[in-house]
Amino acid sequence: MSIFAAVTFGAAVFLVIPLEASPVTNKKFSNQPNNLAPLTFRADGTFQVSIFEDLHFGENAWDQWGPQQDINSVKVINKILDKESPGLVVLNGDLITGENGFLENSTVYIDQIVGPLVARNLTWASTYGNHDYDYNISGDAILERERSWGNSRTSPMASGPDAGVSNYYLPVYDHGCVNEHTCHPYLILWFFDSKGGFKYQQKDASGNRVGQPNWVDAGVVDWFSRANRDLTKRYGKTIPSLAFVHIPSFASYALQEAGVDPNKQPGINDDLPLAPQAQGWCPDGRNDGTCTYGAQDTEFMQAISHTDGLMALFSGHDHGDTWCYKWDRLLPDMDVTPTNNISLCFGQHTGYGGYGNWERGARQVKVSKKGLEKFQATTWIRLESGIIVGKVSLNSTYGEDHYPDERLQMAACPTCDY
């Protein structure tokens, strides 16, 4: 039996999501797709998310090294889920190394990724990253494969020619809620598609792949703002929220430039400088290698930093960064002044594919109903070795509180060198 056949069981329910004409529009999807029960808090009033970043399945698929890295990545997922019990798993971009994939099989790696989740009857939600978009793979194709599994909650709510696929939100209700129409949410989880990579099956006149914008589209930002206003109006209050996107915004870059203190923002800070949205693009939309940053993520930064109740945004992409930083001030080279003190966080590189020799792991985020009254969350990183590093409280004093410098506990990854 092949490694794929070992996890391909159950009835397939495929859903193809076609892109609609501009502008970005609201789609009529349930917040609980695939007829899943609503997400709910535990009986003890807590809710936990496990974030798997940069899995990079399918890398070097043509030689012995590549498939072995996928096996190693499955082991990481299993080891972490043996220690953690999340209410939701987030696959936060670069699920697949798309440029190494073939059109005929580029999405079958999804079956390997979700195998450990299906075996534990866990549910998940995804964002897509720059390596999930290439000549032989697309977000739409990954979504179709995802939705063949009944536990997937990835459910696009916005569409448009430049919107990408994974833009949606999921409410989390109180323990015991069985019908989302009769309950009110205590937490909202937002998911954004930062795109990037290359356009599916498109080449230019010279035979080169066509680059795709690597930022959250302005139309998606408009959808987010409208949807958030609607939720606030519907429930008559600000609902605490968390957000996920693969490529970090320029604000993370600016915070890193301001200085990451290992005792105040604990974690690895090895990708210096980090790579933000709109990197490599010009303000006029060209990506011909003549510009370093085009600022097309400004509207996204404006929205996330002015949304009441949005506590943190979690990103990946930069495998060598794992810190959280409170964005609470105007930063150099920026014109966006935050009003909600949002924390911008990186996860831990999970997959054995992709660059870097840091120990693999996954960021965990836990909230409680009591803590949400003060818009607080707790987060830590669970490493493949089983130890926990970087546990912090994202609260009103984060950025002032003193934490141990745990960078030396990030063990090397000897099998990653190739």
UniProtKB/TrEMBL annotation:
GO MF terms held by the record: hydrolase activity, acting on ester bonds
Presence of keyword Signal: yes
GO cellular component terms, A-Z: cytoplasm
> Which Gene3D superfamilies does its entry note?
3.60.21.10
Calcineurin-like phosphoesterase domain: which residues?
A: 54-255
InterPro entries (alphabetical): Calcineurin-like_PHP, Metallo-depent_PP-like
This chain's protein is named Calcineurin-like phosphoesterase domain-containing protein
